[in-house]
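Q: Putative MFS family arabinose efflux permease, please. Structure only.
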Amino acid sequence: MKNPAAADGQRNIRILTVAQALGGAGPPIIISLGGIVGQTLSPDPALATIPVSIYNLGVAVGTLPAAWLMRKVGRRHGYVFGAMIGILGGLVAAGAIAAETFVLFCIGTALAGLYGAYIQSFRFAATDSVSGDMKARAISRVMIGGLFAAIIGPQVVIWTSDAIPGIPYAASFVGQSVLAMATLLLVSRLHFPRSHPDQKTNLTGGRTIGEIARSPRFILAAGTGVVSYGLMSFIMTATPLAMVACGHSVGQATLGIQWHVLAMFGPSFVTGRLIARFGKEKIAATGLILIALCSVTALSGLGLTHFWLALILLGVGWNFGFIGATAMITDCHTPEERGKVQGLNDFLVFGSVALASFLAGALVNTDNGWALMNWLVFPAVLIPLTFLVFSFKRQAA
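A: Structure for Putative MFS family arabinose efflux permease:
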């Protein structure tokens, strides 16, 4: 006879995977159009990319409040509330385009960022329904949704950019709201048993945030996630600018980013199995090595092949590093501490992403900026990689 709890767990993972595909399609819309709309609405062309940066800040700022809310009322109710923020964000952004108001458009992307904080925790919600080695597989399955999100988001932009005559791009942000509505309908169907830690728990249980942050296990797991995601954002943000500066076309740069996104999410079909076989620390370490190889490739030449191969290595490295680090985080907390640990981790990770995107724009436009950025990757990778090697050698002993 099939275990009802196991059946609910698998159903939750399926729902979260589809929700990741739909809800995760919002960021590509913002990244694709944020700078273009910002350039049209902003009083100063130098402020054109501010809406995208504010989106990243919204994700970082929203992680801890989202974790607190879900810890208090449960994931399902928290995700429904987050989707409502996403619906509002898309409508505010669309209204700002119609009203030609730059500040209001930035508010819309900030709301989208707060919604993104809920989307980013889908991978953790998947682990709540399983145990042991299945946690890594559950994370990997949900991340597959990101592969479809990378296709859905740009297609929404293509189909809707001129759908409202005289107000270009407004319909694309209405489309973002529709995607959030579809996500709301999905997450409202999540089900956890009453005995599950998803239910309302004692908010003061477990260690304090300070004690968690000082834990060596948490420092290693969160540090690996910060380096994996931060370096990916750092190099990815700068690569199209560097390619155009080296004489490559915008179309070639765009194609490179498409290959990069496929490399980011494509391996998720097998990453969970690799973690189950080799261990989360080894897969995370492999991801960091691939990110370093990305920079080796970038420093070896400025041809089209060098850029494209570097972006592919960066994408696969991010997948192994980030999913491995996420699986490591699930070993760092008790059920009472889950919300605090996951929220603190995502605050650190997406805070680093926002900072990396700012730094990338500043450095890539300096003399030898592209080379300098890639040289900076090596010491950043070496620190967590060293401790990961010590970790799995100690486990083997």
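A: Brief note, in case it's useful. The chain is about 80% helix and 0% strand.
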